[in-house]
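[Structure tokenization] protein backbone as discrete codes
[Encoding] learned vocabulary of local backbone shapes
[Protein] chain in single-letter code, fold in tokens
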Amino acid sequence: MSDKIKSKNVVFPGSSETDSKSGEPTSDESGSPHTQQVDFVSNESPTQGNTSSNNSSSNNLPSDAYLKKQLPLQQEWQHLKLHIPGEQVQTNTLKERIPKFPLGKENVPTLLPRPGVPQVGPKYTFRQVIKILQLKKQPELIYESEPHRLYFLLCTCAAVVFGIYACVLLEWAFWISNKEYEENEKEETNDAIRNRDYYLSLGMYLCPSLIMFSAAYFFAKFPTRLVRRMWYLPGPIEHVKFTTYPLIPGRPTPTYTVPLANLTRRETTRVWTGKGFYGTADKGFFFFVLRERISKFKTINWVVDRKGFFWCDGRVFDYLFGKETIQEAEAGIPYDQQFALVNKQLKEQKRKLRNEHGLLWRYKMALGEFTSDVGKLGQRLGVTKRIGDKKAESERKQLPKK
């Protein structure tokens, strides 16, 4: 038998094991590796080696100790929980509102899919997924947003800019009003009339400043309309619970519970676009709005970011908040495609009319409608009679044929 030299990495007692992922030897605190290269001689023939390797591979099943090694450690699990929707504790500190630089880091998704959420596919149909959600006994998390740091940055910058403009225009309004009041001293000697003109001009010049102050207030309060998490509450009367941001950092998290029937999305907006992991990505609009109907004349708008965790996919939200049927929500046809289908049908009808009546089919149809309208108007006014009645009357006046 021919001897065969083999080379293996041997870990001596007291040394650390090699890294299972990279295959590189690990080192101690001093940085010196403990794994050494050892050459040894095997007297086995190739056939014997293959036989022994097959037997060892068949008996080399994973043990319990090996499976326990594959489980994440406590520190790894704590870090992993930060990326699972619903597991992280959301706070309202000022640090969470300051974006990280470079700003491109804020566009990187941080949330993993939530375990246990059914997906539409070979295993479940869309109708079955909706049924699973409706049969829940406990509140079910259906949405969680990514961090809104970019929203806070943009809103803060816009609020500061509009606030500065408002202060400048406020100062200008008082300055121009006082200037006109002093110039009017020579023309008008009556103080009552002068004061009246002063306050009228001041109110007129304060309008641009009030508009700027309103814009600054809108952008300052806009983050309080951002939805952070949303739960579906099953029951005889379905409800939706969601959380937002407080206006001042450090305050408690505002929580709202609204009947599902009072929350609707806009008629011209669809949550499902068919793009992205949950089918909600859109290049034109990076959020959609849910309207809460308080009364007949009052509504509140809530902003939902399209970048986040959605239960199953966006079609569930079209069914819940779009008040669509299961068939319409499952089809998920965007409004632009629906308009394209309607336009295609209109073009087909126009083509048929052109083939039937010729190139002047529009004028022929307009003339027919005009004649019909004139006839109806004459009948109501009693001026004209129907053409059929005139024809019948003329036939009665004719002499009988011999």
About this structure: The chain has eleven helices and ten strands. Residues 348-396 form one domain. Strands lie at 4-11, 35-42, 140-145, 229-233, 239-243, 255-259, 263-265, 287-293, 299-305, 308-310. Confidence is low (pLDDT under 50) at residues 1-59.
